[in-house]
Amino acid sequence: MIIDTLSNSDKYVSLHPRFAKAFEFIKSQNLAAIEPGKYQIDGPELHAGVTDRQGYSREEAKFECHNHWLDIQVCPTGKEQIGWSARERVSSPKGEYNAEKDVTFYDDKPDTYFTLQAGQFAIFYPEDVHAPQIGEGMIKKLVVKVKL
Predict the structure, then answer these.
(1) Distance CA 27, CA 30 (A)
(2) Distance from C-alpha of 29 to C-alpha of 89, rounded to nearest angstrom
(3) Domain count of the fold of the chain
(4) In this structure, which of 45, 51, 69, 111 has its CB flanked by the most CB atoms within 10 Å?
(5) Structural domain harbouring 68
(6) Which InterPro entries match (predicted)?
(7) What is the largest CA-CA distance in the chain?
(8) 119-141 pLDDT tens trace
């Protein structure tokens, strides 16, 4: 997992061949005004989704990870809490792996929580189990999906 500010995103473009286009897309948006929906960035292996929904409590948040996709998550306005654990530390899958959606959910609880604020991003790799959109009120979320 990586947490940093969007102003430092150039430091990470060498970590994956699609990161340059992903961060270019993020930084070209008016994040305060971006509308919920799906956004094509560069073919089927790089796309984004924006949601604007009621925040979850820590108990309600979906604790998940992916096998074939990376997430670059941005909180366009305000702030949100995100729970995190290393995949090697979780042991209670909540059902089977969903290959179509590339997601496994867990009943475990995160080891740690952090706050993601406007102007920041988090990158979640397959070894990062994460529980996003924790907070009160409406939380706008931008997630860029990057194929491994």
Answers:
(1) 8
(2) 36
(3) 1
(4) 69
(5) 2-147
(6) NanQ/TabA/YiaL (IPR004375), NanQ/TabA/YiaL_sf (IPR037012)
(7) 40
(8) 999 999 999 999 999 999 999 99
What tokens appear for 2 in the block?
A: 């990586």
Beta-carbon neighbour count of residue 17 at 10 Å?
11
Q: What is the pTM of this model?
A: 0.95
Say whether 24 sits in a helix, a strand or coil. Answer: helix
Instruction: Give whole-number Cα distances, 124 to 2, 30, 33, 61, 99, in Å.
Output: 7, 23, 24, 16, 18
Q: What is the DSSP letter of 66?
A: -
Q: Quick check: helix, strand or coil at residue 23?
A: helix
Interval 62-84: pLDDT, tens? 999 999 999 999 999 889 999 99
Pull the structure tokens for residue 87: 């995949």
For residue 37, the domain's CATH number is 2.60.120.370
